[in-house]
TrEMBL record:
Protein name: ATP synthase gamma chain
An MF annotation (GO) of this entry: proton-transporting ATP synthase activity, rotational mechanism
Organism of origin: bioreactor metagenome
UniProt keyword list: ATP synthesis, CF(1), Hydrogen ion transport, Ion transport, Membrane, Transport
Family: Belongs to the ATPase gamma chain family.
Upper taxonomic lineage: unclassified sequences, metagenomes, ecological metagenomes
Membrane topology category: Peripheral membrane protein
PROSITE patterns, per database record: ATPASE_GAMMA (PS00153)
Annotated Gene Ontology cellular component terms: proton-transporting ATP synthase complex
Protein localization: Membrane
Length: 199
């Protein structure tokens, strides 16, 4: 859609920073029209491109993306799955972040002990029943955050454009008034000069 200021540039910079040295060993699942052209320009290999995302992302879109990422991981086509998006904090603060989706990273619990779980049974069934909804919610949250951030950047860009247009209009009005005043002064001088010449 465009007209969103530095939104696309900042997410591309974050992608370059995060993937950077591993670019040749990385594959990208890309979401969004503008991102596709930027990634192609920087020679990123994409395995999937989701460009027909509605303005209000839904579980339908996020579950398709989630399933594709999980399949890549389960089929050992990738060792890790990361999600890079712009997190919206407030109107003044939006920042690109990366979250590792797979393999799951154990987090230290509040009491300072690391939680360890041994999972028995089929890994794929576990991913389908428990992890898939969790990952799907993370992806949907990222899509909504990215959309809100994009609109926020767009709002800032439009405010800047409006301010610049107002300043240009003021300068043009001032210039127009000076030219008009000069023309009126010249006409008055000619009339006065003509009247004095007839005396």
């Amino acid at each position: 859609m465009g007209l969103c200021g530095s939104y696309n540039g900042s997410i591309l910079s974050a992608t370059n920073e995060i993937i950077g040295k591993e670019k040749d060993n990385s594959i990208v699942m890309m979401v969004g029209q503008r991102g596709r052209s930027l990634l192609k320009r920087y020679k990123y290999e994409t395995v999937a491109e989701y460009i027909q995302i509605p303005d209000v992302p839904t579980v339908k879109e996020s579950s398709i993306i989630c399933r594709h990422g999980m399949n890549l991981f389960l089929n050992n086509e990738v060792g890790e799955v990361h999600l890079i998006y712009t997190k919206f904090v407030n109107q003044l603060r939006k920042s690109p972040i990366a979250v590792q989706l797979l393999p799951l990273v154990s987090q230290a619990s509040n009491n300072g002990y690391e939680s360890n779980f041994d999972i028995e049974g089929d890994k794929e069934e576990f991913l389908d029943k428990l992890i898939a909804p969790y990952l799907n919610s993370l992806i949907l949250n990222a899509m909504v955050n990215a959309k809100v951030s994009e609109q926020s950047y767009r709002m800032e860009a439009m405010e800047g454009a409006t301010k610049n247009a107002d300043e240009l209009i003021d300068r043009l009005n001032l210039s127009y008034n000076r030219i008009r005043q000069s023309a009126i002064t010249q006409e008055i001088s000619e009339i006065v000069g003509g009247a004095q010449a007839q005396k």
